[in-house]
Amino acid sequence: EGSEHNFMMYPLVVRDETIERDDLVHFLEEHGIETRRMMPLIDQPVYVDMFGPMEHRYPVASWINRCGFYVACHPGLDRADVDHICEWVHQYFGRVRH
């Protein structure tokens, strides 16, 4: 009570194997939409040192590392900002599908 969640990032995962995540990310960045790659926890040096390579043991995490990214999200984001992000995502997929 008396507190709120402060959203920082909104995760997206590209499920279509014909779409390159990095191409989409670059396109969004060109249109003023800040992005970040997912935090690949299974690839962190400390965990690799402790447990060895883990990509093969966690295929879903590996897939998310390859295909996922975040778009910026913050308390000041308004409906127009969300519409802007959605519009450019739709533009990208409309462009690559033709």
List the helices and strands and how they pair.
Blueprint: E1 9-13, H1 21-30, E2 35-37, H2 45-51, H3 59-67, E3 68-72, H4 79-96
Provide structural commentary:
- It is built from four helices and three strands.
- The protein is an alpha+beta fold and 98 residues long.
- The mean pLDDT is 89.
- The chain starts with 8 loop residues before the first strand and ends with a helix.
- The protein is flat, with a radius of gyration of 16 Å.
Order of helices and strands: EHEHHEH
How helix-rich are the residues, as a percent range? 40-55%
- For the CA atoms, what is the radius of gyration? 16 Å
Q: Structural class per helix/strand content?
A: alpha+beta
**Quantity of strands, as a count:** 3
Residue runs with pLDDT of under 50 for 5 or more positions: none
- What's the main sheet like? 3 strands, antiparallel
Strand order in space, largest sheet: 1-3-2
For the record, give the distance between the C-alpha atoms at the N and C termini, rounded to a whole number.
Answer: 50 Å
Percentage of residues in strands: 5-15%
Helical element count? 4
Instruction: Calculate the mean pLDDT score and round it.
Output: 89
User: Which term fits the overall shape?
Assistant: flat
